[in-house]
Amino acid sequence: MFYSFIRWxxxxxxxxxxxxxxxxxxEALPDxxxxxxxxxxxxxxxxxxxxxxxxxxxxxxxxxxxxxNPILRWILDHANAFGVNRANPGPSAIKIPVRTLKEGKLxxxxxxSGSRYTEQLKGGAVLIAKLxxxxxxxxxxxxxxxxxxxxxxxxxxxxFGDPITVPAGRxxxxxxxxxxxxxxxxxxxxxxxxxxxxxYVPDQKKYLKEKEAGKVK
Length: 217
Known about the structure:
Elements: H1 2-17, E1 21-24, E2 35-37, H2 45-52, E3 57-63, H3 70-78, E4 81-84, H4 92-103, E5 106-110, H5 118-132, E6 136-142, H6 147-150, E7 156-160, H7 173-194, H8 204-212
Parallel strand pairs: 1-7, 2-5, 2-6, 3-4, 3-5
Antiparallel strand pairs: 6-7
Protein backbone atom coordinates (compact mmCIF):
# COMPACT_ATOMS: atom_id res chain seq x y z
CA MET A 1 0.00 0.00 0.00
CA PHE A 2 2.79 2.44 0.91
CA TYR A 3 4.62 1.84 -2.38
CA SER A 4 1.43 2.34 -4.43
CA PHE A 5 0.53 5.48 -2.50
CA ILE A 6 4.00 7.03 -2.86
CA ARG A 7 4.10 6.19 -6.56
CA TRP A 8 0.72 7.90 -7.03
CA UNK A 9 1.96 10.99 -5.14
CA UNK A 10 5.20 11.14 -7.14
CA UNK A 11 3.33 10.71 -10.43
CA UNK A 12 1.12 13.65 -9.53
CA UNK A 13 4.12 15.79 -8.53
CA UNK A 14 5.93 14.97 -11.78
CA UNK A 15 2.81 15.91 -13.74
CA UNK A 16 2.56 19.24 -11.92
CA UNK A 17 6.22 20.28 -12.06
CA UNK A 18 7.14 18.83 -15.45
CA UNK A 19 4.20 17.43 -17.40
CA UNK A 20 6.47 16.39 -20.27
CA UNK A 21 7.27 12.76 -19.49
CA UNK A 22 7.16 9.99 -22.08
CA UNK A 23 7.38 6.24 -21.46
CA UNK A 24 8.18 4.29 -24.62
CA UNK A 25 8.18 0.66 -25.75
CA UNK A 26 6.40 -0.65 -22.66
CA GLU A 27 5.14 -3.52 -24.80
CA ALA A 28 8.66 -4.99 -24.54
CA LEU A 29 8.22 -5.57 -20.80
CA PRO A 30 7.75 -9.22 -19.77
CA ASP A 31 4.53 -10.32 -18.10
CA UNK A 32 6.45 -11.65 -15.11
CA UNK A 33 9.27 -10.26 -12.94
CA UNK A 34 12.60 -9.20 -14.44
CA UNK A 35 15.87 -7.42 -13.67
CA UNK A 36 15.75 -3.84 -14.92
CA UNK A 37 19.17 -2.39 -15.78
CA UNK A 38 20.01 1.11 -16.92
CA UNK A 39 22.83 3.67 -17.04
CA UNK A 40 22.75 5.72 -13.83
CA UNK A 41 22.66 9.33 -15.05
CA UNK A 42 20.92 11.15 -12.18
CA UNK A 43 19.82 10.40 -8.63
CA UNK A 44 16.18 10.59 -9.75
CA UNK A 45 16.24 8.31 -12.81
CA UNK A 46 15.22 5.32 -10.61
CA UNK A 47 12.03 7.24 -9.80
CA UNK A 48 11.21 7.63 -13.49
CA UNK A 49 12.06 4.00 -14.19
CA UNK A 50 9.63 2.98 -11.45
CA UNK A 51 6.92 5.23 -12.87
CA UNK A 52 7.55 3.97 -16.41
CA UNK A 53 7.41 0.32 -15.35
CA UNK A 54 4.05 0.68 -13.59
CA UNK A 55 1.95 -1.28 -12.70
CA UNK A 56 4.85 -3.61 -11.90
CA UNK A 57 6.45 -2.68 -8.58
CA UNK A 58 10.20 -2.68 -8.01
CA UNK A 59 12.72 -3.61 -5.38
CA UNK A 60 16.07 -1.85 -5.43
CA UNK A 61 19.44 -1.68 -3.71
CA UNK A 62 20.25 1.13 -1.30
CA UNK A 63 23.39 1.93 0.70
CA UNK A 64 23.23 0.09 4.00
CA UNK A 65 24.19 3.31 5.82
CA UNK A 66 20.78 4.75 4.99
CA UNK A 67 19.10 2.06 7.08
CA UNK A 68 20.77 3.33 10.25
CA ASN A 69 18.29 6.20 10.40
CA PRO A 70 15.04 4.73 11.80
CA ILE A 71 12.79 7.03 9.77
CA LEU A 72 14.67 6.38 6.53
CA ARG A 73 14.74 2.68 7.32
CA TRP A 74 10.95 2.58 7.67
CA ILE A 75 10.51 4.39 4.36
CA LEU A 76 13.05 2.23 2.53
CA ASP A 77 11.62 -1.00 3.93
CA HIS A 78 8.13 -0.03 2.79
CA ALA A 79 9.49 1.06 -0.60
CA ASN A 80 10.88 -2.46 -1.15
CA ALA A 81 14.53 -1.42 -0.78
CA PHE A 82 17.25 -3.66 0.66
CA GLY A 83 20.57 -2.58 2.12
CA VAL A 84 23.91 -3.39 0.48
CA ASN A 85 27.48 -2.59 1.45
CA ARG A 86 28.62 -1.07 -1.86
CA ALA A 87 32.33 -1.51 -1.07
CA ASN A 88 32.04 -5.13 0.10
CA PRO A 89 28.71 -6.61 -0.99
CA GLY A 90 28.00 -9.87 0.80
CA PRO A 91 25.91 -12.90 -0.24
CA SER A 92 22.70 -11.05 0.69
CA ALA A 93 23.25 -8.71 -2.27
CA ILE A 94 22.43 -11.73 -4.46
CA LYS A 95 20.17 -13.81 -2.21
CA ILE A 96 17.65 -11.06 -1.38
CA PRO A 97 16.86 -9.97 -4.97
CA VAL A 98 16.79 -13.60 -6.16
CA ARG A 99 14.29 -14.48 -3.45
CA THR A 100 12.26 -11.38 -4.29
CA LEU A 101 12.12 -12.25 -7.99
CA LYS A 102 11.18 -15.86 -7.30
CA GLU A 103 8.21 -14.67 -5.25
CA GLY A 104 6.91 -13.28 -8.54
CA LYS A 105 5.48 -9.94 -7.42
CA LEU A 106 8.35 -7.47 -7.82
CA UNK A 107 10.95 -6.65 -10.45
CA UNK A 108 14.46 -5.68 -9.32
CA UNK A 109 16.23 -2.49 -10.41
CA UNK A 110 20.02 -2.45 -10.78
CA UNK A 111 22.34 0.19 -12.27
CA UNK A 112 25.41 -1.56 -13.70
CA SER A 113 27.03 1.63 -15.01
CA GLY A 114 28.03 5.03 -13.69
CA SER A 115 29.72 3.46 -10.70
CA ARG A 116 33.24 2.37 -9.70
CA TYR A 117 31.62 -1.01 -8.99
CA THR A 118 30.34 -1.34 -12.56
CA GLU A 119 31.86 -4.77 -13.25
CA GLN A 120 30.64 -6.23 -9.96
CA LEU A 121 27.15 -4.89 -10.61
CA LYS A 122 27.10 -6.26 -14.15
CA GLY A 123 28.11 -9.65 -12.81
CA GLY A 124 25.54 -9.33 -10.04
CA ALA A 125 22.75 -8.49 -12.49
CA VAL A 126 23.63 -11.51 -14.65
CA LEU A 127 23.88 -13.87 -11.67
CA ILE A 128 20.61 -12.63 -10.14
CA ALA A 129 18.75 -13.05 -13.43
CA LYS A 130 20.28 -16.50 -13.91
CA LEU A 131 19.43 -17.80 -10.43
CA UNK A 132 15.92 -16.33 -10.48
CA UNK A 133 15.33 -17.53 -14.07
CA UNK A 134 14.13 -14.13 -15.25
CA UNK A 135 15.19 -11.90 -18.18
CA UNK A 136 17.23 -8.71 -18.01
CA UNK A 137 15.44 -5.63 -19.39
CA UNK A 138 17.60 -2.66 -20.45
CA UNK A 139 16.15 0.83 -20.05
CA UNK A 140 17.39 4.37 -20.62
CA UNK A 141 16.54 7.75 -19.11
CA UNK A 142 16.97 10.81 -21.30
CA UNK A 143 16.20 14.16 -19.76
CA UNK A 144 17.54 16.83 -17.43
CA UNK A 145 20.62 15.89 -15.40
CA UNK A 146 20.28 19.08 -13.37
CA UNK A 147 17.33 18.92 -10.98
CA UNK A 148 16.23 22.52 -11.52
CA UNK A 149 15.77 21.84 -15.23
CA UNK A 150 12.93 19.43 -14.49
CA UNK A 151 10.89 22.48 -13.45
CA UNK A 152 11.54 24.02 -16.90
CA UNK A 153 9.28 21.29 -18.34
CA UNK A 154 12.11 19.85 -20.41
CA UNK A 155 11.24 16.54 -22.05
CA UNK A 156 11.90 13.39 -20.04
CA UNK A 157 11.87 10.04 -21.81
CA UNK A 158 12.24 6.52 -20.45
CA UNK A 159 12.41 3.83 -23.09
CA PHE A 160 12.65 0.08 -22.61
CA GLY A 161 14.66 -2.28 -24.77
CA ASP A 162 14.10 -5.91 -25.69
CA PRO A 163 14.65 -8.41 -22.86
CA ILE A 164 18.01 -10.18 -22.65
CA THR A 165 17.95 -13.87 -21.75
CA VAL A 166 20.87 -15.27 -19.77
CA PRO A 167 21.86 -18.54 -21.48
CA ALA A 168 22.11 -21.85 -19.67
CA GLY A 169 25.35 -22.86 -18.00
CA ARG A 170 27.73 -21.37 -15.46
CA UNK A 171 28.02 -17.62 -14.99
CA UNK A 172 31.63 -17.17 -16.08
CA UNK A 173 33.67 -14.01 -16.55
CA UNK A 174 33.32 -14.48 -20.30
CA UNK A 175 29.53 -14.74 -20.04
CA UNK A 176 29.36 -11.67 -17.79
CA UNK A 177 31.46 -9.71 -20.29
CA UNK A 178 29.26 -10.92 -23.15
CA UNK A 179 26.03 -9.89 -21.42
CA UNK A 180 27.65 -6.63 -20.30
CA UNK A 181 28.48 -5.80 -23.91
CA UNK A 182 24.94 -6.71 -24.91
CA UNK A 183 23.60 -4.36 -22.23
CA UNK A 184 25.78 -1.51 -23.51
CA UNK A 185 24.71 -2.11 -27.11
CA UNK A 186 21.10 -2.00 -25.94
CA UNK A 187 21.67 1.27 -24.05
CA UNK A 188 23.26 2.81 -27.16
CA UNK A 189 20.45 1.59 -29.42
CA UNK A 190 17.76 2.87 -27.05
CA UNK A 191 19.45 6.27 -26.81
CA UNK A 192 19.55 6.45 -30.60
CA UNK A 193 15.88 5.39 -30.88
CA UNK A 194 14.85 8.22 -28.55
CA UNK A 195 17.09 10.85 -30.12
CA UNK A 196 19.74 10.06 -32.77
CA UNK A 197 21.64 13.24 -31.83
CA UNK A 198 21.70 12.50 -28.09
CA UNK A 199 24.97 12.72 -26.18
CA TYR A 200 25.03 12.25 -22.44
CA VAL A 201 26.61 15.22 -20.65
CA PRO A 202 26.80 14.67 -16.86
CA ASP A 203 26.24 17.31 -14.24
CA GLN A 204 29.73 18.82 -14.23
CA LYS A 205 29.85 19.66 -10.51
CA LYS A 206 28.75 16.16 -9.57
CA TYR A 207 31.11 14.61 -12.14
CA LEU A 208 34.15 16.53 -10.85
CA LYS A 209 33.28 15.72 -7.25
CA GLU A 210 33.01 11.98 -8.04
CA LYS A 211 36.21 12.13 -10.08
CA GLU A 212 38.09 13.62 -7.13
CA ALA A 213 36.72 10.85 -4.94
CA GLY A 214 37.90 8.25 -7.45
CA LYS A 215 34.41 7.06 -8.33
CA VAL A 216 34.78 7.79 -12.04
CA LYS A 217 37.74 7.96 -14.39
